[in-house]
Amino acid sequence: MSDVKLKVSNLQKIFPAANRREKDVVALKDINLEVKESEFVVMVGPSGCGKSTLINIIGGLEAATEGQVQIDGKDVTEPGADRGMVFQGYSLFPWLTVRKNVEFGLKMKGVPKKEREQAAREFIKLIGLSGFENALPKQLSGGMKQRVAIARTLANHPEILLMDEPFGALDAQTRVVMQELLAKISRETKNTILFITHDIDEAILLADRIYVMSRRPGTIREVLTVNMEGERSHEMLVTPEFLKMKQKIMDMLWQESQDAAIDK
Amino acid sequence: MKKSRRLSYGCLSFISFCVIIAVWCVVTYGGFVNKIFMPSPTEVWISLVDMAKDGTLLEHCFVSTKRVMVGWLWSAIAALPIGMLMARSKFFSAIIQPVIEFVRYLPVVALVPLTLLYLGIEENQKYVIIFLGTFFQLVLMVCDTVSSIDKNMINAARTLGANKLQVYTEVIFPAALPGLMDDFRLTIGWAWTYLVVAEMVAASAGLGYIILKSQRFLATDVIFAGLIMIGVIGLITDFLLRILTKLIVPWHERLGD
Fold it and tell me: Which long-range CB contacts under 8 A does A175-183 form with residues at least 24 apart?
C-alpha cells in the first residue's frame, strides 16, 4: 500500500470582488485530492477551471481561502524545495549556464561545489542534454529549455513535482518527444508528480490516475484510473483502450463547456 | 550588431560629426555670424591648446570629473538598496515614494543657497549638488527596473528552496543588472548637466567654473572649449560604460540584436 504523499482537503479559493458592483469569484470549491508516492497524477479540465490556481496553492505561491494542503501529513503554506514546480514559461535564469541552472536548488541548500557539479551532470544526462552544460539559455530551443527546467527541479529532490502545462508552449512534435521523455524519467526516478494539462492525449499518455475538473467554480468531477500496460509511448495514442478513455473524458469536458456556454 | 553593420554605424556617426563641424566652419569663417556669438574652430582650438599648455585644462577636467563621479556614486550607493526595497515592499514604498516625488520636482539651482548654508564651500557641497540632481531620478529608475523582473523567476527560485535573502542576491540582483547598467549610464549623463550648478559658487577650478567665468568676459571661445571638453568626456564615459555592460552581462539579449 503506497503512502499518500500529497493530500488536499476541502480546498476552496475565492477571489474577492474588485468593487461593490461585482460578485466574488469562486475559483475552486470542495477540492479533495490525493497523490500517492511515486504516482503520476494528471489534472485535466476546461480553460478557466482553476487548475493553475490550484497548483499555485499547492506550491505555496498563492493562499487558499479554506482547506489544507499536506505533504507527508504535514501542513504546507509557503513555497519550498519539497514542492518543486515546472512552469509553462520555463523561467530559467538567463545569466546562468545550463549546469548552473540545474545546480541552483542545491546551491541554495549549501551543497558543496563538487557534489553539485556531479549531481547536475547526472541530471543533465538524464534529460539528454550532455554536452550543453556550458550553454546559456538564450542559445537553447524551447524544448531544450523545458528539459533544463525539469532537470533543475528534479536535481533538488523534491517530495513532489508540480507541473503546470509545461509543454503548452512547444510545437506538437516536440511535445510528444517531451511527453515520452517525462514518462521515461518518471519511471526511472520514481518521482511523485502532479501534472496539469488541457490536452486529453497528454493526460492519458502520462497518467496513472486522472482527475477531471469541472468548469468554474472548479470541482473534481471524476477520478479515472489509467490501466495501460507497458511503456508509455506515442504508439499507444491510437489503441482502442486509449481511444475509449479519450472519448469518455472528451464527453465530460464537452458537457462542461456546453454548460458554461448556457450559463453565459 | 554584425561587424558590417557596426562599421556603417560608425561611419555614419563620424560623417554626422564632420557635417556639424563643416557647417560650423562655413558659418564662422564665412562671416555669417558675429564673432562674439560664435567663435571659429581655430579660436576654440587655440584656447584649448593654451589651457593644455599651462596645465589648467587637465586640472579643470580632473576636478570636474571627480565631482561628477563622487556625487553620482553617492547617488548610486543610496539608490540601489532604497530602490530595491521600494520595489519589493509596498509598505516601504508608501512611506518613501511621495517624499521622493516631491523633492524630485525641486529645481536643484534653487537649493544651492541651502547647500552653502549647511555644507559651506568645500567639495562636499559640490558632491551634494550632483547627488541632489541624480539621486531622486535614479532611485525611481532602480525601483522600476527591479519591479519589471519576471515574477515567475522569483517564484521558480522560491520553489527551489531560496530563502528571502537568497532571492535578492541570487535572482533579483543579477536579473536587474542589465536594466541597472542602463539606468547608471543615463544618470551619469544627467550628473554632468548639474556640473555648472555645482561649480556656480565658491569654485576655483573646473569646466563649469571656467564656462561661468568666461561668460562675464564674453570669452565665447573658452565657453565653447569647456562645453566641448564636457561633451568629449561624456562620450568617452558612455562608450566605456557600454563596454563594461557587455562584459558584466554578456548573457543579456537586447530586443534589437
Answer: A175/A202, A176/A234, A177/A143, A178/A143, A178/A146, A178/A147, A179/A205, A179/A206, A179/A232, A179/A234, A180/A232, A180/A233, A180/A234, A181/A127, A181/A128, A181/A147, A182/A150, A182/A206, A183/A40, A183/A231, A183/A232, A183/A233
